[in-house]
Amino acid sequence: MPNRTDWLVALPVLIPALAAAFGAALHGRPRAQRLLTLFSAALLLAAALLLLAAVADGTVLASQMGDWPAPFGITLVADRLAAAMVLITAIMYAATAVYAFADRGAMAEEALWHPLLAALVFGVASAFLAGDLFNLYVWFEVMLISSFGLLVLGGGREQLDAALTYGLLNLVATTVFLIAVGMLYGLTGTLNLADMALRVPGVPNQGAVAAVAFLLMAAFAAKAAVFPLFFWLPASYHTAIAPVAAIFAALLTKVGVYALIRLFTLVFPASQGWVGPLMWFIAAGTMLVGVLGAAAHWEVRRILSFHIISQIGYMIVGLAIATPLAIAGSVFYILHHIIVKANLFLIAGAMQRIGGSFSLARLGGLWRRDPWLGLLFAVPALSLAGLPPLSGFWAKLLVVQSGFAASYWWLAGIALATGLLTLYSMLKIWLEAFWKEPPEDAPEAAPLSRRERLLLFGPVVSLGLITLAIGLWAEPLAAFALAAGEQLSTRQEYIRAVLGGGGTTP
Amino acid sequence: MEILLALLFGVLLAAAVYLLLARSVLRIIIGLLLLSNAANIAIIGAGRVLGTAPPLVAPGAEALAASASNPLPQALVLTAIVISFGLTAFFLVLAYAIWRSEATLDGEALRLAEPPLLPSTDPALAAQAEPAAQGRGSALPEREGA
Question: N or C: which end of chain B has fewer CB within 10 A?
Answer without folding.
Answer: N
